[in-house]
Specification:
Length: 711
Amino acid sequence: MNFFAFSGLVNGLAATGLALLVYRRAPHDLRHQTFGRFGLAVAFWSYGYCGWQLAGTREAAVWWVHILTLGAIWIPVSYLHHVLALLNRIHLSRRFLRINYALAVAFSLISFTPFFIRDYQPEAIFPFWPKAGILFHPFLLWWGGLAIWAIVLLYTAFRRETGFRRVQLLYVLIGSTVGYLGGATNFPLWYDIPILPYGTILITFYIATVAYTLLRYRLMGFSLALEKGLAYLVLMVLIALPIYPVLLILQKLFFGVMSTQFSVIQLALFLLTVIGAYKMKTTTADTISRTLFRERYQVYETLSRFSKALISILDVHTLTNTIVNTLGETMQSRTVVLYLLDKQRALYYPAATFGFSPQDSATLPSFCQTDVLPCWLRDHQAELVREELEHGDHSDPSGMSQLLLDLIHIRTSVCLPLIHQHRLLGFCGLGPRTTQTWYSPHDVEVLMVLAREAAIAIDNALVYQEVKESRTAIRRTDRLRSLETMASGLAQEIRLPLASIRAFIEQAPQRCDDQVFLQQVALRVMNDVTRIEHHIKEILDYARQIEPRLTLEDLNELIESCLHLTTVHPTPRPIRIEKSLAPDLPRSWIDRQQIKQVLLNILLQSLEAIRETGGVLRVRTHELIRSSGDRWLVIEVSDTGSGISTVERNHLFDPFFHQEHNAQPWRLGLVIANQIIHEHQGYLEVSSEIGKGTTFIINLPLRSASTGSHV
C-alpha cells in the first residue's frame, strides 16, 4: 500500500466514523444531518481513492474512479449545506441550495460518460490517471466556486462574531481551508501539471481540526460522541496498519495471488466488526441480565430510577424515609438505618429507620464526629462490609474490633458513607437480607453509586431547609418591623374606647340607681372591650403566625384595616387618601395575615414616598376576567411621590442589590411581599415614572373552597 492509498484509507475511516457518530447523536438536528452527509461524501471519495491507487488493472481503476468521482461531486454542495446550517442561514438560501443539488445530480449522471472523463493514461507515478472531458471544466469551476463561497461565509461570520463563537468559527475556518487546499492538489495532474497530490492527507487534518473544535468548544453539543469517535478512529488505524499486510500475505500463501480489492473489502468488514463489538457486548449482556437474571436486573433498574428521582425531594424527613424504605424493600434488607450529622450538637443521629420497632429505634446510639465509625468512613470514603471485618486480616485489630462492635450495635451488614464535597453528611447501614444471602460485590458497587447520589440529594435538601428557615426568620423580622406601625395604630384604637369606659366608670357612683344608665354602660363597655380584644387578637395573630392558613376573606375589609393602621401617624405635609374599592368584589381563599403583611409593606412604601412632600395615596380594587376565563382579584396602590429609577425598579425584588446599595428598610419588605404573592400563585407588578409617582399592582387568582388549599 503506497502513501496515496494509505491517505485515502485514513481519510475514509476518519470521515465515516465521525459522520455516523455525529448523526446518531442528534438525527433530528439539521447541523448533525448536514455534517453527516458531508462526512459520508468525503468517505465515499476517500475509499474510492484508496481502491483506485490499489487497482492492478484498467477496469478496476475505472470502477474505483467512478466511485471517487461521485464522492467528489457531492462534497462541496453538502459542505455548503452544513456551513449554512451552522450559521443558521438555511432560510436565506433554500433556492440556491436546490439549484446546486440539482447540478450535483446532473454531474453525477454525466460522470459515467466520456464527456466527463475521456481517457485514462499513465501520469507521473500513476499508471491510470483520468483525463478531463469537455464537461469536467465547468464541473471544476462549480466545485471550486462552492468551496470558496462556503469559506467566504465562514470568514464573514468569523469577522462579525466575538468571544467564544469567534474562536469556534476560527478553528472550523482554518480546518476547512487547509482541507480544501489539500484536496485541490489532485486537480493539476488532470491538466498535465506535474504536481503530485500529496495534500490528500490534509483531509484528515481537516477532520481532526473540526473534531478538536467540537470537543473543546462544543460547537454542536456532542463532545462525548466525538470523543468516542476519535477513540474508534485511533483503534481502527492501530488495527488496520498490521492487519492489512497480513491479509495480503495470507492470500499469497493460500491462493498464490494477492487481490487488493478483496483485501480492502475484508479489512472494511473486519473494522466494522470491531466497531460493533462493544455495542454487541453491551446489548448481549443486557439481554442475558433481562432473561436469566431477571430479579437482580429489576432490582438494579429500580435503584437506578430511584437515584434519578432523589434530587426532586427537598424535604429532609421525606427524603431520608424514602431512602431507607426503598433500600429496605428493594434489597430485601431486614433493617436499614440512616444517620445524619447534627451540626449544632456535633454528632450523627438516626434520622430514619426501616424494619426497626419503635422500641429498637429508641435504643439506636448516636455517634460523635470523633468516634471510630464516622472517622473511618470520613477518612477512607469507602463502604464497610461486616463480613470482611469478621474474617479479614487487619493491621489494627483494636480499631477494626470497635468498628465491628459499632456495626453490630446498629444491626448493619453493609455501611455506606454519604459523602459530598469531601464532607461526611451521614451514613446508611443495611442489615442482613431476608433471603439469607450476602451482599455481592456488584450489589455493594451499585449501593455506593446510589449513596453518592443520595448524598447530593441530602445536601440539596439541607441547603433548601436552611434557606427556608432563613426566609422564615426574615419574614418574622419584617413582621416585627411592621408591628411598630401596627402598635401605634392599636394605641389609637384602644385610647378612644378606654376613654369612654373611664367616663362611664366615673359617672357610675352618682347614677348607681339609674338602671337605664347602667344598662347603657354595660352595653357600651362590652362593645368597647370586644373591640379592644379584636384588635389585640389581630396583632397577636400577625406576630405569631408564619405557617400558611387559608380562610375566606374580604379583601376590601382587609385593605380598610391596613389603611387605618398605617395612616394614624401625623405627617409633615398633608396626605390625601383616595379609595375606589369595588363593592361587588368576591371573597377569596387567602392567608389573611400574609396578605396583610403584603399590604402593610406596600402601603408603608407608598406613604414613605410622599411623607415629606405630601400628596395623594390611591387604593383601588377590581375583578379581572382573562380571555382564558380565569378570574383574578386586582389591588392597585398608587402614590404621587418622586418615583423609582429604572435601575432600581429592575432590582426592586432583589434583596442583595438593595443591601449592597444601603437601601431603606422597607425594600426588604417588598422582597417578602413579592414572595408571598408568588406563593399565592399570583404576581406583583410595579410601574413608576420619575417625578410622577409609583403604582404597585397585586394580582391574586380568585380561589374557591375547592382550590383554597392549593397555594
